[in-house]
Specification:
mainly beta, 2Fe-2S, 11 strands, four-stranded antiparallel beta sheet
Length: 104
């Protein structure tokens, strides 16, 4: 696995979404209330619209383009069902958030 730094760990807060870039790849770090932070590709599976500007309330992420709804704990699409955000391996190391986009 090739983990790369995407942002400082101090930028992460429970209940928030942090958009990041790793090369040309846009990702989001989503930390749901009562859960653990996870890294996802920031493209909505519907039409590839960026979820980095989505509306996250600590539990649910809403795609602002077409209203798709994602569970903050799992990345699964709740409306409509049968879809999910692509998750990447993530770790916290030496005060940095590291993501492996090749391992996703």
């Amino acid at each position: 696995m090739a983990y790369e730094n995407v942002c400082k760990q101090s930028l992460l807060y429970e209940g928030e979404l942090v958009p990041c870039k790793l090369g040309d790849q846009e990702i989001v770090i989503m930390w749901p209330d009562g859960g653990k932070p996870k890294a996802y590709e920031a493209r909505c599976p519907h039409e590839g619209v960026s979820l980095g500007r989505g509306d996250f309330n600590g539990r649910i992420l809403y795609c602002t383009a077409h209203g798709w709804v994602f569970d903050g704990h799992s990345g699964k699409c709740l409306q409509p069902t049968g879809w999910a955000m692509k998750e990447y391996p993530m770790r916290l190391e030496n005060g940095m958030v590291q993501v492996d986009i090749a391992g996703g």
